[in-house]
Amino acid sequence: MSRVLVVGSVALDSVETPYGSQEEILGGSATYASVSASFFTPVNLVGVVGTDFPKAYLNLLKKRNIDLEGLEVRKGETFRWKGRYGYDLNVAFTLVTELNVFEQFNPRLPEKYCGLSHVFLANIDPDLQLSVLKQLNHPQFVALDSMGFWIEKKKRSLLQLLKKVDLALLNDQEARMLTGNTNLAKAGKELIRLGPQMVLIKKGEHGVLFFTKDFVFSTPAYLLETIKDPTGAGDTFAGGFMGYLAKGKKQDVASIRKAIIYGSVMASFSVEDFGLNRLLTLKSSDIQKRFNEFKLFTRF
Ligand code: AMP
Q: How many other C-beta atoms lie within 10 A of the C-beta of residue 108?
């Protein structure tokens, strides 16, 4: 079984949705991805927090078999993000972003992380993502996430990165923005031309589109009646996807398709409650049950 290396933000989130609100809860792109991947395989996390970061949150991550040697604790305050969702839960409004210690973040991988085979570069400055890639010794599979902010500010670095990764994960808006194409079928093809072997476009509650140069795979999201907080759904997807691939060590088409469904299953659990609440009560049997249901309701 391979380990998954996750690099990204570890945050204290404050979230408002039509179904309630929570203050200063554990969040961040790397946190969601790591917890999700930890259901499949051990995880090594690289990120930064401030001295105010609650010990209880560190313990919670350790309990999930997440190696925290790469989580730097810097003097200062932890990164904070505050967001609001309206009735269209696909659209997040960022109210506050306080970078704090994240502003000086310069990821340095502990020696033992440099040889890891499966790497998820969660949403951070693309120049930092490039610097992580330079520290790695021939990883087998690298996936990349980004956001509109970096597409606007650092498009050149992002284009450079796309040539170096195996999979690019973007949401529909980001795919349109990066390619200048409103049509997602065209945007997916264009993204493949930009470098990665695989592109996955996330469409929130409408599922995902997956592209390679040879085929397209489309799947809906798991149909849910209760969605309380969509924060971190994309990162949870990526964690499940990477965790499943690392566990199986195979990268054939069938494994990739299954990894997409496991990613979707993990994301569907995550959004059922605020923050990581649902993921932290999840059992492996819940994941398998939902995976089997997914098979049933997409078969025709
Ligand atoms: P998502 O729902 O995929 O947009 O991811 C939400 C997570 O991203 C939250 O837990 C935030 O803490 C984190 N986040 C928000 N803004 C940023 C940013 N500029 N850089 C890194 N992480 C961020």
A: 11
Which of helix, strand or coil describes residue 38? coil
Asked whether 209 and 201 are in contact (CB, 8 A), the reply is yes
Instruction: Give the chain's mean pLDDT.
Output: 96
Q: What is the DSSP string of 162-212?
A: HTT-SEEEEEHHHHHHHHT-SSHHHHHHHHHHTS-SEEEEE-GGG-EEEE-
Identify the pLDDT of residue 1. Answer: 65
Tell me what percent of the residues of the chain surpass a pLDDT of 90. 94
pLDDT tens digits along 23-58: 999 999 999 999 999 999 999 999 999 999 999 999
Distance (Å, whole) CA 37 – CA 80: 23
Would you say the CB of residue 9 lies under 6 angstroms from ligand 1?
A: yes
What would the two tokens of residue 52 be? 């105010």
Beta-carbon contacts of 222 under 8 Å, excluding residues fewer than 6 positions away, are: 264, 265, 268, 290, 293, 294
Model-level pTM? 0.97
234 in contact with ligand 1, CB cutoff 6 A: yes
DSSP 59-93: HHHHHTTEE-TTEEEESSPPPEEEEEE-SSTT-EE
Choice from 7, 17, 24, 29 to test ligand 1 binding pocket (greatest atom count within 8 A of CB): 29
Candidate from 123, 151, 172, 271 with most ligand 1 atoms within 8 A of CB, to mutate: 123
Task: Identify the structural domains of the chain with CATH numbers, from first to last.
Answer: 4-298 (3.40.1190.20)
